[in-house]
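Tokens in:
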């Protein structure tokens, strides 16, 4: 499976239940890469979407162990085992922290947007540069939007 994430210089990904910063070019790239593929996300990340609604044009597979929790237009799985029975190989894991950590070992490609700044944060992604089984496959040029510098880096599992 694939994963897609935006991290700052400390591999931080969120604060107070929200993203650290919104970069419209990055959101567009997220849409391009994930449209037509199933997305896998946690209950709390779903809550950050407009109206708490699933993403359009994609199968939304939500992880939540909350009894009775259901979402119109999405599938809810109570544990990784039952999720994996229904998650195709072309799925994208889209967060948040707990879901990335639960599924990192099942992914072989990571589309990382590296934001060249650091922010106060309370959610983090594992530092792939320190994990021996991951390596950089492709590194894009530094881009800039509204004064925020970032680059797209693709990691592959060795
Ligand atoms: N920068 C990025 O690219 C990016 C992407 C996505 C999210 N984020 C940020 O990440 C933060 C949210 O991350 P988070 O870790 O707090 O929340 P999360 O991973 O989005 O959702 C956590 C919830 O998912 C369910 N869950 C997770 N693992 C599970 C498992 N193994 N089995 C069953 N249910 C499971 C649980 O729901 P129940 O409590 O219902 O059991 C858990 O409370 C936000 O700040 C968000 O903005 C950043």
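Residues out:
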């Amino acid at each position: 499976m694939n994963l897609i994430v935006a991290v700052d210089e400390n591999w931080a990904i969120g604060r107070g239940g929200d993203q650290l910063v919104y970069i419209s070019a990055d959101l567009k790239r997220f849409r391009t890469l994930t449209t037509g593929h199933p997305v896998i996300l946690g209950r709390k990340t779903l809550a950050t979407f407009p109206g708490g609604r699933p993403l359009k044009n994609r199968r939304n597979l939500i992880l939540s162990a909350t009894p009775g929790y259901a979402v119109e237009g999405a599938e809810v799985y109570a544990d990784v085992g039952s999720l994996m029975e229904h998650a195709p190989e072309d799925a994208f894991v889209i967060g948040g922290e707990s879901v990335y950590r639960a599924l990192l070992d099942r992914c072989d490609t990571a589309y990382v947007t590296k934001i060249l700044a650091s922010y106060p944060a309370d959610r983090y992604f594992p530092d792939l540069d320190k994990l021996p089984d991951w390596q950089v496959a492709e590194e894009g040029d530094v881009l800039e939007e509204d004064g925020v510098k970032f680059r797209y880096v693709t990691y592959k599992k060795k």
